[in-house]
Amino acid sequence: MGAYYWAVLIDHKTVVKPDGYKLMEHAYYNNDSMNKVIKLLYKKGPSRIVWLCDYHEGEITWDTVEEEKYRSIEIPWGIKKPVTIDKKKCLYLVNYDKKEYVDLKKHFAVESILCDGSPIHPLPLLTNSDPEAMGGGDFYPYTPIRSRWKGQMIGISAEKPPEDFVDITPFCYLIENEKYMNSYYGKIPPDFDPRERLHLISIPEIEKEYFQDNIFDPKGATTKIRNKTRKKV
């Protein structure tokens, strides 16, 4: 059957049950379930979050969520009215406990180049209940960010966080190709300190493979594809 997931927003006493319970059925940008979680965070404010696996054993489980009568939001397959968000307002994913953040505009731009299909959203891995894949349909390549933000206070902001917050965006590219995942992350432990490991941002093998024809502008957080063989006007 594989591993199934719910997005549990503890402080909002709300659980979002996605359209496709397996992680890699819903953990993408612009997915209705992902947009619903982001929308709740923006409209209701920050909350502790756990992307909760049905196999997870701990203080919070699917059973305890049901027992405590969390408000349940089910996102059906083929929803008639898609869930949308204002992307101009939902720019930064912020952890207020660790003082870390992900620049979602930049992350989406780079992830769109690296992935073979739909760009993977970092939130389900960052807040995952378990530090490793739990079954079929999960995310299997190694990533040091998995469970790093589990159960912590997470919010969405249109403004860049203060200077004392650390940008961990470079560690959040969720490449499904294990060759590049290993060459990028190497053997970084799950409790890595981004302040000490910023030299790993350069991902040379990935740049060689994917960025030779792509110019990334980190200031504008946009990706421009340029044709080297374009005829001169």
What attributes characterize this protein structure?
233 residues, alpha+beta, eight-stranded mixed beta sheet, 10 strands, globular, disordered C terminus
Describe this structure in words.
- With 233 residues, this protein is α+β, with helices and mostly antiparallel strands.
- It has one domain (5-225).
- The chain is built from seven helices and ten strands.
- The protein has helices at residues 23-26, 32-44, 62-67, 104-114, 123-126, 178-185, 204-210; strands spanning 5-9, 14-17, 47-53, 71-74, 92-95, 100-103, 152-157, 166-167, 214-217, 222-225.
- It has an eight-stranded mixed beta sheet.
- A hairpin with a 4-residue loop joins strand 1 and strand 2 (14-17).
- The chain is globular, with a radius of gyration of 18 Å.
